[in-house]
TrEMBL record:
GO terms, molecular function: GTP binding; GTPase activity; metal ion binding; rRNA binding
Binding of Zn(2+), residues: C247, C252, H254, C260
Family listed: Belongs to the TRAFAC class YlqF/YawG GTPase family. RsgA subfamily.
Listed cofactors: Zn(2+)
Organism whose genome encodes this protein: Ureibacillus endophyticus
Lineage per the UniProt record: Bacteria, Bacillati, Bacillota, Bacilli, Bacillales
Domain CP-type G: from-to ranges: 63-223
Pfam families assigned: RsgA_GTPase, RsgA_N
UniProt-recorded name of the protein: Small ribosomal subunit biogenesis GTPase RsgA
Residue ranges constituting the EngC GTPase domain according to the UniProt record: 72-221
GO CC entries: cytoplasm
Gene name of the record: rsgA
Subcellular location: Cytoplasm
Keywords attached to this entry: Cytoplasm, GTP-binding, Hydrolase, Metal-binding, Nucleotide-binding, Ribosome biogenesis, RNA-binding, rRNA-binding, Zinc
């Protein structure tokens, strides 16, 4: 019996890395019977059949798993957001942050196209940057042909398993090409009429970069709150989670309840109005969700 990590899944085969070599494996039928499926990123036990083939017999417990892209055991996600073309979108950013918090994946916000900002826009963006930094999020700013980007990203990727996320046309493919120059991903071209990029999807593969692993996929462009319960939403806003013990009622949802620490913090400016608005919106979305059977 050998142990390794699935680095690539393609056409029903799983490519398991063990001591620097890839073993082409099939999954046992027992996984299908249980409704389980091995994922890229999984640590597995497998039996070898010949030199370069094998069968996966056990999947080790996962620390987390994402649906799109289907990948497990992620440490962090680089959230790629443009500040222009398309414009910086705080509600979409907060959606990503909330879902990543729920999966215990560390978000790192990468802001692209900062060279396109006017002076007025620059002030607005800087205000947002300070707000998100004060919550505790790491932010990396970059622009077209930024010569320092690789140097600044390498320590961030070191020793971690990372994925990229963000809406289309924000520069994910360009960023991947910077990190993995041999990849030469087709860069999505912005469609002027739609203001969105064209999709360029591929299979998922984890590639070694700077002593870490990076998912070779343009990532995912949206998230829903299928796995988050309304009582858990507070925990996915770190600045709310810190204060919730101060609420009078256990299970306070910070909407109509009296003596709510979150609403008090909103009054004093310790919580940003746009974050509270998004919290209300997301909460309603979770409440309106159709029950699953």
């Amino acid at each position: 019996m050998a142990q390794g990590q699935i680095r690539k899944a393609l056409s029903g085969y799983y490519y398991v890395e063990q001591n620097g070599e890839l073993i082409q494996c099939r999954g046992r039928g027992v996984f299908r019977n249980r409704g389980e499926s091995p994922l890229v990123g999984d640590f597995v036990d497998f039996t070898k059949e010949g030199d370069s083939d094998g069968v996966i017999v056990k999947i080790h417990p996962r620390k987390n798993e994402l649906v799109r892209p289907p990948i497990a055991n992620i440490d962090q996600a680089l959230l790629v957001f443009s500040v222009k073309e398309p414009d910086f979108n705080t509600i979409l950013l907060d959606r990503f942050l909330v879902v990543l918090e729920s999966f215990q994946v560390t978000p790192i916000i990468v802001l692209t196209k900062t060279d396109l900002l006017t002076e007025t826009d620059q002030e607005t963006i800087q205000t947002y940057i300070q707000q998100y930094k004060s919550i505790g999020y790491e932010i990396i700013e970059t622009y077209k042909n930024d010569p320092t980007l690789l140097e600044r990203l390498q320590p961030v990727l070191e020793g971690k398993t990372s994925v990229l996320a963000g809406q289309s046309g924000v520069g994910k493919s360009t960023l991947l090409n910077t990190l993995l120059p041999n990849l030469n991903l087709q860069t999505g071209v912005i469609s002027q009429s739609l203001g969105r990029g064209k999709h360029t999807t591929r299979h998922v593969e984890l590639i070694e970069v700077n002593n870490g692993l990076l998912a070779d996929t343009p990532g995912f462009s949206s998230f829903d709150f299928d796995t988050i319960e309304k009582e858990e939403l507070t925990l996915c806003f770190p600045e709310f989670a810190e204060l919730r013990e101060g609420c009078k009622f256990r299970g306070c949802l910070h909407i109509k309840e009296p003596k709510c620490a979150i609403k008090d913090a909103l009054e004093t400016g310790d919580i940003q109005p746009h974050r509270y608005e998004h919290y209300q919106q997301f909460l309603q979305e979770i409440i309106d969700r159709k029950p699953r059977y």
